[in-house]
Amino acid sequence: MRGIVTFDENRCKGCGLCVNVCPVHILELDQTKVNAIGYHPSHAFAPEKCIACASCALMCPDVVITVERVDK
Questions:
Q1: Could you say which of 6, 29, 40, 41 would form a disulfide bridge with 12 (CB–CB 3.0 to 4.6 Å)?
Q2: Among 64, 51, 67, which residue's Cα sits nearest to residue 17?
Q3: Cα dist. 51→5, 13, 17, 40 in Å?
Q4: What structural domains and CATH numbers belong to the chain?
Q5: What is the model's pTM?
């Protein structure tokens, strides 16, 4: 199982909870960007390694993450 993870970057408050919970460690706060509300948003730096567990989406308090499961 593989996943496609997307973020609503302009709503992310950069709390980092998704980064901490990702079992494959593919998420980070993007220090090169500041979003519309003044935070460094989360993003997947290696999205091809997503295993579609959706832990990040479940942990996100602002519901900014979407995980879609796709067959390999």
A1: 41
A2: 64
A3: 10, 24, 18, 24
A4: 2-70 (3.30.70.20)
A5: 0.91
